[in-house]
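Workshop exercise sheet. Pairs work together: one partner reads the sequence aloud, the other fills in the structure field after running the prediction. Swap roles for the next sheet.
Pair: D.N. / O.F.
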Amino acid sequence: MGAFLLVHGDREYVRRPGEELQTDLGVLDVPEDVSHGDQLETHLGEPFSVRELRGPDLFDHFERTGAPMMPRDAGLVMGHTGAGGGDRVLDAGTGTGVLAAYLARAGAEVTTYETDEEFAEVARGNMELGGVDDRVDVRTGDVTEHLDDLVEEGPFDVLTLDTGDSPAVVERASELLASGGFIAVYSPFVESIKETVAAASGDLTDIRTFETIQRRMDVGERGTRPSTAGVGHTGYLTFARAGRSE
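Structure field:
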């Protein structure tokens, strides 16, 4: 069973059924039969609301092994590929597993590759925490070394990549994807875009690259303006589609 969010004011904690929460507000034993919407109290009588973990909560509370994909980037991937229930997704560069979890929560079946065994183990724990471990298969290894086998496992509906060797996978995308399927490649640097686009130009169509920028607005009594805090730019996303028009 996945975990739940325990909320008291602006405090948030993640616990699984049967686990204990200890804070200065008291000790709280989470019942085995807990469900979202319940109200629980510590031994000092302090109330906590129980909430179901949702996408933004996963981003905030997953154990991190590096910089995770930002929610705005995950949203663009899902919006431009239409990934959802019934889709098979091949993902590479699992990392913390934020994108894999978002896709699985939307109903997709995700096979994801992570080269670092320790990172992969953390990602498996995160998938369990998010309650999506039954829809996400976290594999350890370099996806480029398994492409022939993956072609046999396919076809996949969506291919999502966040690795330095993404162009090598994109070159095989037409073999991996179902007709009309999409690729989404995250690139932290401009230089990577050209290689990805060149690899996609052979057999894919509808190739587009976007820079991901988001500005938070500060609203106050004196006026409203873009926030001076935070990072607006995260990276670049390249999308393409399998199947050329004759």
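Discussion prompt: Residues 217 and 227 are 5 Å apart (CA to CA). What would you look at next?
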